[in-house]
Specification:
Elements lengths: L4 H22 L13 E7 L10 E10 L2 E9 L6 E12 L2 E8 L5 E9 L2 E11 L11 E6 L23
Antiparallel strand pairs: 1-2, 1-8, 2-3, 3-4, 4-5, 5-6, 6-7, 7-8
Length: 172
């Protein structure tokens, strides 16, 4: 007895559908990218190695993240505090553990594009481009550095180190 062609096609279609369904259930979906938390105060300290008693400068960003949008302020100072850049406006967007940020110096009007990637309490910071050159002065903005997230609790008597393994000097 011959099996009608329609029955074979319907059976094949049902078999393919059920296999695809089982494969979809059995397979695991790719892991979701972990969304980093850019909120907080991030900084790197720059000290004059030839004069350990001199004041340290550095670069600091205070960021606030809502969803994928990031905003904040920056501050920079050369070692020995010979030049201070008292303010910058930060705006950007987070994509997973990386943020693309634009920093506008309020001192000079310069605007810089930065990629920042978080790894634990460390932020790998890399200036990627200049959007608008500064008009009046040199800006104090980290170029290619590692910023450390400020801890909320004092470390007591222990010497705290930054993400580069360099002891953090507390200014008196």
């Amino acid at each position: 007895m011959a099996i009608p062609r329609f029955t074979i096609q319907a059976s094949a279609l049902a078999l393919i559908t059920s296999c695809a369904g089982l494969g979809g259930c059995a397979s695991t979906s790719p892991a979701q990218a972990v969304k980093a938390d850019f909120n907080g105060n991030w900084s790197v300290q720059w000290c004059d190695k030839t004069d350990p008693g001199a004041d340290c400068g550095g670069f600091n960003v205070d960021l606030s993240q809502v969803g994928d949008k990031i905003s904040g302020e920056s501050f920079g100072a050369r070692a020995r505090l010979s030049q201070i850049d008292e303010g910058g406006v930060v705006r950007g967007v987070a994509i997973g553990n990386t943020a693309i940020l634009a920093i506008e110096s309020m001192r000079s009007g310069g605007i810089y594009l930065v990629a920042a990637t978080i790894d634990g309490r460390c932020m790998h910071w890399k200036m990627r481009d200049t959007i608008r050159r500064s008009e009046r002065d040199i800006d104090i903005i980290a170029g290619d550095d590692v910023l450390t997230k400020s801890s909320s609790a004092p470390s007591g008597n222990e010497q705290e180190s930054d993400c580069r393994g360099i002891p953090i000097r507390r200014q008196d």
